[in-house]
Design brief:
Structural class: alpha/beta
Radius of gyration: 18 Å
Number of strands: 8
Number of helices: 6
Largest sheet: 8 strands, mixed
Low-confidence stretches: 197-204
Strand order of the largest sheet: 2-1-3-8-4-7-5-6
Distance between the termini: 28 Å
Mean pLDDT: 90
């Protein structure tokens, strides 16, 4: 099974989605990372079976693509574990913290900037990062609050390395599976996609 993943996509999400095929001893998984344009070109010439992306793509006459949403994650502000139990108030308490944000290529960033403009907020930004793996490291080590889909830092939250300050109201990241029309679709790919279709989008 040949899967392409957007280079900036959360590694945790990829592993969670592919868990069933990773454990299949009868299957060899090939996982490639690249830009969306590079991955789409490889999909068109059938060098990939599937692309995982957090960006929606649309089909045209030359590219009969199928893009289905396979998950939706809440976007959170996470940061150092606090000793006090004062509840973080959004957006009032943003002024007290520096922020680590996704880069401008991220749809999350666009949504967050629009929200800040509508609320009249001017957040203090300490870093901007395109790659979710690096954003995860900065969330863990910088001492700033990080704006991330919860899946990106699921291990750190579970182990209490980081704390979830709040889910940002109305802010979500969508994850998509992109395929193309083929006369033959492998049983592994069909099982993977059918399993996701039967599962509701994750709220968090």
């Amino acid at each position: 099974l040949r899967v392409g993943a957007l280079a900036t996509l959360s590694r945790n999400f990829q592993q969670n989605f592919l868990r069933s095929v990773i454990r299949d001893e009868q299957l060899r998984l090939v996982l490639e990372s690249a830009s969306l344009d590079e991955l789409l070109e490889r999909l068109r010439v059938h060098k990939l079976d599937l692309i995982l992306s957090n960006r929606l793509v649309t089909a045209d006459e030359q590219s009969p693509l199928y893009c289905r949403r396979i998950a939706q994650q809440s976007v959170c502000l996470v940061g150092p574990v606090r000793r006090g139990r004062h509840r973080f108030r959004f957006p009032q308490d943003l002024d007290d913290h520096a922020l680590v944000l996704p880069g401008y290529s991220s749809e999350i960033r666009g949504q967050f900037d629009l929200m800040c403009e509508e609320l009249g907020l001017q957040p203090r930004i300490s870093a901007e990062v395109d790659d979710m793996a690096m954003l995860r490291l900065l969330a863990r080590d910088s001492g700033s609050l990080a704006l991330v889909p919860e899946v990106v830092v699921q291990d750190e939250l579970r182990e209490r390395v980081l704390e979830k300050y709040c889910a940002v109201p109305g802010l979500f990241e969508n994850f998509y599976a992109i395929t193309t029309r083929r006369h033959f679709r492998s049983a592994a790919l069909k099982s993977l996609l059918d399993g996701q279709a039967a599962r509701p989008a994750e709220p968090g």
